[in-house]
Design a protein that fits this description.
The chain starts with 14 loop residues before the first helix and ends in a 5-residue tail after the last helix. It has helices at residues 15-28, 39-50, 73-86, 90-98, 111-122, 163-172, 185-189, and strands at residues 33-37, 57-61, 150-155, 176-181. With 194 residues, it is of the alpha/beta class. It is globular, with a radius of gyration of 17 Å.
Length: 194
């Protein structure tokens, strides 16, 4: 929820809200596998603290944070993006979205068109924002009961999704494989491999 065309959560989201949503959807579809991307990885982590055996297989793409509060560049970026979108500033939104595209491929044909299309889709919506400062885990020990095999995907030079977060998550999970990618790997340069 709070992404794309879904309804916002009044007053902002919490990891508990997102984990509740994930649990309801997974139960409704009898899901045995789960993939969490960025904030979705945090929602999945929070759900696993409640029910470590809920899924048979897991994947975490670009986890942003675990149990620590630091420089929360992802939240700061969302707030800047929300400001631009609320003012109808498409060019400003495009500029912020382009920050996530590796500089080596920003000039590629089609990149600007895709980013501009995404900005246009987002105009008139409220980007997700957290209710307060929080993390998906209290401690990495919260994951001790998770036994499902997991894939953890990182990409280098990603300020919003630091590689060390993925490395620490893979180490904390009992049966995890880390797939480190180069800059922009998940969406731009190695999406087929992912």
């Amino acid at each position: 929820r709070c992404h794309g065309g879904s309804d916002p959560i009044d007053g902002g989201w919490s990891y508990d809200d997102l984990a509740d949503d994930l649990s309801r959807v997974a139960d409704a579809f009898q899901a045995t596998q789960a993939v969490g991307l960025s904030l979705g990885a945090g929602a999945l982590l929070r759900l696993l603290t409640r029910d470590p055996g809920r899924f048979e297989r897991l994947a975490f793409l670009l986890p942003a944070t675990l149990a620590e509060r630091g420089d929360d560049l992802a939240t700061e970026r969302l707030l800047r993006l929300a400001d631009r979108l609320s003012r109808g500033d498409r060019a400003g939104a495009v500029s912020i979205l382009l920050e996530e595209v590796p500089s080596s491929i920003r000039a590629r044909q089609g990149v600007r068109i895709l980013v501009d299309r995404r900005a246009r889709q987002m105009l008139g919506t409220l980007p997700p924002f957290p209710r307060d400062a929080q993390t998906p885990l209290k401690t990495l020990r919260d994951l001790a009961g998770v036994t499902a095999p997991a894939l953890v995907v990182s990409q280098s030079d990603d300020l919003l999704h630091p590689t060390d977060v993925a490395v620490r998550l893979a180490a904390a999970l009992g049966r995890a494989e880390l797939l480190p990618l180069g800059p922009g790997g998940v969406f731009w340069t190695e999406s087929r491999r992912v």
